[in-house]
Amino acid sequence: KLARVAVEISQEMDSAWNLNILKSEARPPANLRAEFGSIGTLARAEAKKAYAHKAKKSIGKTRRQKDIVPMWLVEHTPETNETTFRINREHQLVRLALEKKHIPKKVVTALLRNLEKTMPVAHIAMKAFEDDAQLKFDDTSEEKIREDALLLYEKYRETFNPEQALKLVMDLQPFHNHGPIVVAAAEAFEEERNE
After folding, report:
1. Neighbours of 125 (CB within 10 A)
2. Which residues in 33-186 belong to E strands, given as ranges?
3. pLDDT tens, residue by residue, 162-180
4. Is residue 47 scored above 90 in pLDDT?
5. Is the distance from CB of 17 to CB of 26 less than 8 angstroms?
6. pTM score > 0.85 for this model?
7. pLDDT in the model for residue 181
8. How many Cα neighbours within 13 Å face the side chain of 104?
9. How many whole angstroms separate alpha carbon 61 and alpha carbon 51?
10. Which end of the chain is more exposed for a tag (fewer CB within 10 A), N or C?
11. Which pLDDT value is given to residue 50?
12. d(CA 51, CA 57)
């Protein structure tokens, strides 16, 4: 996806290339196929270079940035050939937000602003161009979805009735994709509350 290779075929070469009348299909001659494979490999390597530096820079991994603590971590699983992008819990701004009992609004605002600013778009784009099946999305466990939905549901229940609170949670990403888990969490909360 990162590169294109142009092949010019003259009319004299139509039969060698098995070019059909509509000129919509062509087959390279057998003696050229290995060479085309080599050209394709080189073209892919060159095209990847154009994104590789930007990709490394976007997660603070260039030679000059060795000691920088990145906002995002890139994890590659060789067994499944999947790449996951995670927020670095060791980044001081993230730790500050996680450690404080009552988080000041300015800490959360700073965290969100920096997450937006440092999102490794170039690295994600490179992986998507190479093979978008490598990108792993929505791998959160059911337990984590339940916990996060419950946090929101409890907050909404301070103001709204159960139906309204549930709808508000279900209107949010990623909970809209996990209806049964969210409903079960809300029901468990209501049962516990009524005991």
Report:
1. 15
2. 72-77, 82-87
3. 999 999 999 887 888 889 9
4. no
5. yes
6. no
7. 93
8. 5
9. 13
10. C
11. 65
12. 10
